[in-house]
Amino acid sequence: MDSQLEQQLRELLDKQAITELINAYCNAADRHDHAKMQALYHPDAIDDHGHFAKGLASEFIAKLPEIQKAMAILHHNVTTINLKLDGDRAEGEVYILAFHQVKGENGLFDVLIGGRYFDKYEKRDGQWKFSHRAIVADWAYPAEPSKVQMDHPFLSGAYIGQPGLADPSYNFFSLFKRGEF
């Protein structure tokens, strides 16, 4: 294999590893899997999640049980991923749609957010992880009260997703493990 093709293959594999990291973040957030979330960041990584937390990612993750307590539904969807590699470091602009159903003082309300993550990644000991992640909100669509209808006839007989261990994925899959990346 020539050196140019070898370099292209390495970049493709690195981009795939980073894409899997991004997707694992969504799963960890939506399933409230804090051990998995911690495994996605380097120990000295920074996370800027607006008013929720700005600083060490480990401090943000430690706050997640309290932050997510009011979240009845979290559903992150990655759309466009733009990645630039430079050896063992990379940067990414990741477009997301994130749906939140929240338990408020007056009952449930919804917030659909269109935004982006500004990411910096580093490959250490052969593994890509976040070194810095910042949330950018481009728009929000609130609905109060909530418009979600989990009892709609169209959903009859379907598995119903939930945060935490009650999610049906933990009984369905044998290869995906809670707390693992």
UniProtKB/TrEMBL annotation:
Top-level taxonomic group: Bacteria
As given in the record, the signal peptide range reads none
Name a Pfam family for this protein. SnoaL_4
Which part of the chain is the SnoaL-like domain?
10-133
CDD domains documented for this protein: NTF2_like
UniProt-recorded name of the protein = SnoaL-like domain-containing protein
In the record, what lineage is assigned to the organism producing the protein?
Bacteria, Pseudomonadati, Pseudomonadota, Gammaproteobacteria, Nevskiales
